[in-house]
Specification:
The chain is mainly beta. The protein has one domain: Porin. Helices cover about 5% and strands about 60% of the residues. The N terminus is likely disordered.
Length: about 325
């Protein structure tokens, strides 16, 4: 509708402008979902930021002669307003931007959220997260592409090393069941300085340091997300790493009501990480994207029109900062 476009352009511009400080301000591994509050902070740390760009050349849809290039930009950030107060509000921002030469409009998934602790009862701490996002064509013209996000989280410290977390997560742009709040449970334990883990549903993870120079991270979130990373500091400030990840995205499709473009991709990657200073790092990596699947539907349980994109190498450059 013509009358809705100015307000939606304003929404997109305001969201980008309001959060440009978050994009340009340091951070690393942040989310606008439960991780906004659950992911641990370093002592006195107030900001995390990361920015990545990936480039794939000469990809094509399998079974066709259509060739194209693809560029993906990812940025995540979170900001803790008061490092002295464990109940301090935390602001988070995420953006994924896809550009390709197929003639299809650029796609963007951008979201922002605020989380905070709202109270305590006996030995339980209660927190809430509220957010809003846009997932569709990058011109921010379609109100159907706006979605809500939110979480209710209850946490209980079992002892000095472990805690229990219960949550209810709503994500209006989830690739599976976006219209239903999903419950979650997690047992978190820091066994030692070299081993910590989370066991739960939908997410489990483990971080292990078998030796001073080595770090291993493995995580899985049901039903579509998985990643593993091995990092080796071969000399001071210089790291080699290898990783695997399975990613999925969903974007509003303006041509069909209640339908979305759903993308899933697996990646293998290896690269070099330079710790420029204690608070920032540069990354240069090469990888291989495979099993890239595109389809249309309300979610992955009801999608159709499946097509597969060719397996292709890519390059990635990244920047991380925290303070």
């Amino acid at each position: 509708m013509t009358t809705s476009r100015p307000s939606l352009r304003t929404f997109g511009f305001a969201l980008t402008l309001t959060l440009s400080a978050a994009i340009l301000t340091p951070a690393a591994s942040a989310q606008t979902g439960p991780g906004l509050l659950i992911s641990p902070w370093q002592e006195k740390q107030s900001v995390e930021f990361s920015l990545d760009a990936r480039y794939i050349d000469d990809a094509h849809v399998k079974g066709t002669t259509q060739h194209y290039t693809s560029t993906e930009y990812d940025s995540v950030a979170r900001w803790r307003l008061d490092t002295e107060n464990p109940a301090s509000p935390v602001i988070g921002h995420e953006i994924v931007y896809f550009h390709n030469t197929t003639g299809r409009p650029d796609m963007v998934d951008q979201s922002a959220a605020v989380g905070m602790t709202v109270g305590q009862w006996q030995d339980w701490t209660f927190s809430v997260i509220a957010g809003v996002g846009f997932a569709g064509y990058s011109v921010y013209e379609h109100e159907e592409a706006i979605y809500a996000k939110g979480d209710l989280i209850a946490s209980h410290d079992l002892d000095e090393k472990s805690s229990l977390i219960l949550m209810l997560d709503y994500n209006g742009n989830r690739a599976v069941l976006p219209d239903i709040p999903l419950p979650g449970i997690a047992y978190q334990r820091r066994e030692s300085d070299t081993l910590s883990y989370t066991l739960g549903l939908p997410r489990s993870s483990v971080t292990w340091k078998p030796a001073e120079q080595w770090t291993v991270n493995v995580a899985y979130t049901l039903p579509l997300s998985a990643n593993a990373n091995v990092d080796f500091e071969f000399v001071e400030h210089w790291h080699l790493f290898a990783m695997f990840e399975n990613k999925s995205w969903a974007f509003h499709n303006e041509d069909q009501d209640n339908q979305r473009l759903l993308i899933e991709q697996k990646r293998l990657e290896a690269g070099l990480r330079w710790q420029v200073c204690p608070n920032s790092a540069l990354v240069l990596a090469g990888g291989y994207a495979f099993d890239t699947r595109e389809s249309f539907g309300f979610d992955r349980l009801t999608d159709r029109g499946e097509r597969w994109v060719s397996d292709e190498p890519y390059v990635r450059a990244g920047f991380d900062m925290n303070f």
